[in-house]
Amino acid sequence: xxxxxxxxxxxxxxxxxxxxxxxxxxxxxxxxxxxxxxxxxxxxxxxxxxxxxxxxxxxxxxxxxxxxxxxxxxxxxxxxxxxxxxxxxxxxxxxxxxxxxxxxxxxxxxxxxxxxxxxxxxxxxxxxxxxxxxxxxxxxxxxxxxxxxxxxxxxxxxxxxxxxxxxxxxxxxxxxxxxxxxxxxxxxxxxxxxxxxxxxxxxxxxxxxxxxxxxxxxxxxxxxxxxxxxxxxxxxxxxxxxxxxxxxxxxxxxxxxxxxxxxxxxxxxxxxxxxxxxxxxxxxxxxxxxxxxxxxxxxxxxxxxxxxxxxxxxxxxxxxxxxxxxxxxxxxxxxxxxxxxxxxxxxxxxxxxxxxxxxxxxxxxxxxxxxxxxxxxxxxxxxxxxxxxxxxxxxxxxxxxxxxxxxxxxxxxxxxxxxxxxxxxxxxxxxxxxxxxxxxxxxxxxxxxxxxxxxxxxxxxxxxxxxxxxxxxxxxxxxxxxxxxxxxxxxxxxxxxxxxxxxxxxxxxxx
Length: 511
Fold this sequence. Notes:
Shape: globular
Helix content: over 70%
Structural class: mainly alpha
Largest sheet: none
Strand content: under 5%
Number of helices: 22
């Protein structure tokens, strides 16, 4: 160490730029999930675009209400009992059977509760056909939860190639089935099916891989092992669903079902993007970081490295949407959704702020602190609910602007994590400064281009504005950030090696 470097500076430098081997291992694991994410995002997003042209805003509003209930049951079943086996030091077949039993009981129980609550919910909101929407939601919950344990086992065993293939196949089959139902004038079922049919198709694809389902005898001890961890994850999932759906549940008492449909459509667009991109990394973060749970500082160093990649990936499509929301809605769903451009813009800004906490919650889980997940979502839900109550008087757009402001509490989660993972809070901001600072000018460039083309076709305006904004962001980041530049070079070299190896194998086979 040179005389000009203090121990604190050296430690900070190591926190931000060490663990090269861990980074390579992480990005190797994530390569399959990245490919799967791109395919799933294209299929799910494409299916929603088709359905957006075939269903009316009223049907979209009913779907938004029922889907909130369906996601509650699904996430509690998937993230609770199933994900609990990932943190087990030694997974036995009885643990798998216990997770299957708990997942089935939770999903069926919540599904029946949703169906039973349908009449009361319809009476409360006065939306016609809402009871039917809740009936469908209750039926979909156990179907969606079928592969929950299979997914968790693949994550624990780091079988990301198999997981990517199976999940991608499930999304493709679900998208095709949903589009077919929409053309058969079953719009509400088709909207549920975009994600709801993924479960049963994925479960069947796992069986084609000859992976045993894991049903069988278990013991009270094994059930207790899974549930001790799964309980906190279930609470985290429950509070997460409440946090995500509080706005539409409250807005449903204030606006018509058609107006609610505009909000739901924009929300679903962002949920598809953020959930697919976020899950792409979180699927790897939790089981990978869990190996170092006894060394919080190592987890902290790995977190600082990987959160930059996650944030960058999510910002690229978000910037494209924020630069040209009006043109995007016209191209994506048709003219009937254009009036929601303000809603989409502010929801995008809200999602950008929320992404400051990317990777934080799965990192807490890897550190053996799953209770932080539900505690944090409880805090967010309280802040969000208070904001809605204060701003509701001024209408739906004022509510969404208020939600943007409420998301400014996100840095508190990073501060919380910095204490648990032994890194300095300011290291996070130095780590992310460039990625954050480039967002406003990127959006401004795209918006300026869109406004400079008033007579151009709407598709041309969107392509020009979004391409300019995202290319500016990507090029400047890759130019100014040495680590991203190195990652890009490594990825290109790895791709060339794979292509060369494939060509050599093909030549050898042919000869």
